[in-house]
Every structure is written in C-alpha cells, then in structure tokens.
Specification:
Oligomer: single chain
Structural class: alpha/beta
CATH superfamily of the largest domain: Alkaline Phosphatase, subunit A
Helix content: 25-40%
Distance between the termini: 35 Å
Order of helices and strands: HEHEEEHHEHEHEHHHEHEEEHHEEEEHH
CATH architecture of the largest domain: 3-Layer(aba) Sandwich
Shape: globular
Number of domains: 2
C-alpha cells in the first residue's frame, strides 16, 4: 500500500518562517561519482583541494560529519548505492539483491522520480550512464544520461552542467512555475580522471598512461594522505578487482609518485565539478529560484587513492564508507554541522519531508529534517557497513559512538581479521603499519584492555546483520541456519589465453 502526495499546508507547517503559504520548494540533488569527504576542505582543512562553490554551500547550510553509504554486495559499489538513493531501502532489501526477495514487487512505482511526478513536480535528471538503477532513472520526465570522464567541456563535467542550464532556460522561457526536482549527477571524479589541461597543471598532475614509467614529480601535487601506506597489511579479499589492479595511471602501484599524481587528477576533476555547480547556482539565483531551493550535495561512496594502501571503493574504512553530505535550503541554519549518522537511503524520505509529500510505505530510511532543523543530532545510534563484492562473506563493519569494528572473512578463510578503532582518538584509523608508536593510534582489537568493548561491538554487529537480513555469517558467528546465496562463478581464461572481445569490454568497463 502506498501513501501519496502532500497535505496542502504541510510544508508551511514544517518551515513556517522561511516559506510563504502555498509555496513548494524546489530540490536540487547533486551526486558525484567516487569522492572521499577528506578530499574537501570542509572535512579536511589540510587538503589543497580548492572548491569555492562547495565551501560556500557549506557556509550557507549544514555539513554532516557522519554520512555513510551502507555498503555493497557488488564490486561496482555505485550500483547498490544508487539503488538505495532511488528507493530509500536498505542494502539487503533492494530489488537487485537476492532476486528481490525482501523488496516489494511494485517498488518501481515508488522510486524517487515517480513519487515526485505524482506530487506535481517537474523532474529532470542528468548523470553517468550505467552501473545505476536504469528503471528508476527512466522515470524522470527529462533524462540526459551519458558517461563523461574527459578533459573538455563536451567530454567532461561541463556536459552535465550544460544539460541543467538548458533545462532551467527552457523553464524560464515557458514561464513554468511548477516546483522542480533536478537530479544533477556527474561522471567524475571516477576514473579515468582526465582533467582539463588548466586544472591538471594547477594540481601538478598528468594524465599518465604509460605503464612502463612513473609520472613526474611536481611540487603542486596534493600531499600524500595522512594514512597512506605502500600496501595494505593483508589482502582485501577481491582477487583481480579492477579498481585495485587496473585503473589507468595507477594499476597496482602505490608509490608516492603515482598516488600524488592520481590525487592531482582527482582534485582537478573535483574542481571542474565545483565550477559546474557554480554555473547552475548562479542561474537559479538569476531566475529568483535559489532561495526556494533545497540543495543536497553528496557522493555515491568514498574513495581510497592510497589511503591504507588501497586504491578503490571496496573497503569499509572511513575514507570510503563515509560520503560528503552538505544541505542548504529554507529553515537550515547557515554554517552548522551535525553528526547525523545518516545513510544515503535517507535522501528520499528527507526530500519528501522538504516537499510535504507523504513518503511511500516502501521507504526504510529516516527523514533528516530533525537534524537539519537542529532538533536532533542524529537519526540513529548504530551504523552498519558491508562489502562482499569479492570472496564471501566479505567485510562487515559496525559503528556506535566513538567505536568502530571492521571484520574480514575472505579468500575462503585465508584472511580472517578483526579491527577495533576508537575514532575519537584515532579518526584516521591508523594501523600498526603506520608506525605511530602510540597505544591508541592503532587497531585495538588485540589489546586485552579493550576485550570487553570488542565483545560488545561483536554482539552489536551480529544484531545488525540479523536485523537487516544479511544473508551471510562470519567465521566466528553462529550460522543461524542460513543458506548463503548461490554464487555463479564466471569462467576465467586460462593463463596465457586471450579474453574474447566481449570479456575485454567487460573488464574495461568502469565500476
């Protein structure tokens, strides 16, 4: 059963001081592809990333310090992440996992665009093409999807900005006064990070493509991350993972020259996105629409790029499990921050609250309005994370307060590791390999002083796995009588055997 539309004055009741009676706000949802919050100065003051538009957005709104993407059952982490955004459902309750056994059959009637279409909103979308939720994407009234990861206006992020500007100009010409929901997505900074020549030069980076040589050193390049390692202390559990072994310009290298150059490419792409946001914000301001528009800025997940000796997004460290999350709009106090403890699946119910739309029963997320209006600091106490796109059962994480647990059960039992962090004292999740020489700036799982806390977090993780219908159990957990999903193993070419053209294309496809 679905609940539809909005009561007439619901929005005015939510934010009476900021909207006139009868007004319905616009919503601009900005989603970038692969970005750690720690790229940005609003999360990492030591970052050399310049993003004046994002900085201004943060100064005019609220920054979340505890926003997460929940996780993935696929190497293409963006796919379940974007399904969660579109449906408001938890990771094991999506239509594309376990044959949709925990998802309503009619979920496509209650995805983001459909909810807002029914409420009388004009809906528009531009974003990358692929590794997403195609059925939900097609529900927007106007769709311009294409993967643009080049270094020119036509091949890069400006293409997505142009589509939004054109849409706004058409509305302006037609004197369209309906409220709008614009899904303003980008294809960058996902690799291949081919930035514009000007911005690459600014960050001292080159679009390095020669596997036989190292990229040149340049003093303009971003510094190594504080938790950089030359390699992770144990295998991440996904053999042959594209993001860890085949990204052009990085491959399997984790040396300083490679990582600093790749960060420079990332920063160049980030700033180009920032410029496109500025163009759109200025257009909205010129149209007189900016003050009545809620703007949500986030990413589908974080990114490693040398942190902890990793490159991709297939891990549960804070740099990758967390996402940047900034919201500006009517009723939100400028220059504020909150922990929030939110997931990306909270975006849809929050949008419904903004617009005064009664959220469908299929939504499992929480509205973030109480945090955004200063009524609450968080919407939940406990956060659960999963990655099992590689060998099963994979990685699991749970966080409550300052404490965080990560467990690894991969490579058919060859890697079974437990990590315990106090994030108040060790926010960068330093390991023994970082050599900090401190009793607290390290993984605490083996420290007998924290045995009671470890047991508490282990129990909490099992509780969350049961609550969220996680179909797997780790080596030291009860099996609960579960039968794990059947995995279909794809045939791999023998050593020395060439892949077919079809397989070549699949291997090259960006995750």
């Amino acid at each position: 059963m679905k609940r539809l539309l909005f009561p007439g004055l619901a929005l005015a009741m939510l934010f009476p001081c900021f909207l006139k009676a009868g007004d319905r706000p616009n919503i601009l949802f900005v989603l970038v592809d692969d970005q750690s919050p720690f790229d940005l100065k609003v999360y990492n003051p030591d970052s050399s990333q310049e993003s004046p538009t994002i900085d201004k957005l943060a100064a005019g709104g609220m920054v979340f310090d505890g926003a997460y993407h929940m996780g993935s059952f696929s190497g293409a982490v963006c796919t379940p992440s974007r399904h969660m955004i579109m449906t408001g459902r938890t990771v094991w309750h999506l239509p594309n996992t376990q044959d949709g056994m925990h998802c309503p059959d009619d979920i496509e009637a209650n995805v983001m665009a459909e909810v807002f279409n029914r409420a009388g909103y004009d809906t528009m979308r531009t974003c990358k093409k692929g590794n997403s939720y195609a059925a939900a994407n097609s529900k927007f009234q106007v769709v311009h999807d294409a993967t643009k990861r080049g270094g020119t206006a036509e091949t890069g992020s400006a293409w997505h900005g142009d589509r939004v500007i054109e849409y706004l100009e058409e509305r302006e010409s037609a004197k369209d006064e309906d409220p709008f929901l614009i899904y303003f997505g980008f294809s960058h900074p996902h690799d291949t990070r081919d930035g514009t020549p000007e911005l690459l030069a600014k960050y001292g980076a080159t679009n390095h493509a020669d596997k036989a040589t190292f990229p040149p050193a340049n003093s303009k390049q971003p510094a190594l991350p504080v938790n950089y390692l030359g390699e992770h202390p144990f295998h991440h559990g996904h053999p042959g993972l594209r993001d860890e072994v085949a990204v052009s310009g990085v491959w399997e290298r984790r040396d300083e020259l490679t990582i600093r150059n790749e960060l420079g490419r990332e920063f160049a792409c980030n700033e180009y996105i920032d410029q496109q946001m500025d163009r759109v914000f200025k257009k909205l301001e010129a149209m007189g629409e900016l003050e009545n528009t809620y703007i949500i800025y986030t990413a589908d997940h974080g990114m490693a790029i040398g942190r902890h000796g990793l490159q991709g997004k297939q891990n549960l460290y804070e740099h990758t499990w967390r996402v940047p999350f900034i919201v500006k709009g009517p009723g939100i106090k400028p220059g504020t921050r909150a922990q929030a403890n939110s997931y990306l699946l909270d975006v849809l119910p929050t949008m419904c609250d903004f617009a005064g739309i009664e959220a469908p029963d299929s939504i499992e997320g929480e509205s973030l309005k109480p945090v955004l209006t200063g009524e609450k600091e968080t919407v939940r106490e406990t956060l659960y994370g999963v990655y099992c796109g590689g060998t099963k059962p994979g990685m699991r994480s749970v966080k409550k307060g300052d404490w965080k647990l990560i467990k690894y059960d991969v490579l058919d039992g060859q890697v079974r590791e437990t990590q315990l962090f106090n994030l108040a004292e060790n926010p960068n999740e330093f390991l023994a390999e970082h050599g900090k020489g401190s009793a607290t700036l390290t993984d605490l799982a083996e420290n007998p002083e924290y045995a009671e806390k470890l047991a508490e977090m282990e129990a909490l993780l099992l509780s969350e796995m049961r609550r969220l219908d996680d179909p797997y159990r780790l080596w030291d957990q009860p099996d609960d009588g579960l039968t794990p999903p059947v995995e279909t193993k794809k045939s791999q070419p023998k050593k020395g055997e060439k892949k077919s053209n079809k397989k070549k294309k699949s291997a090259a496809k960006a995750e």
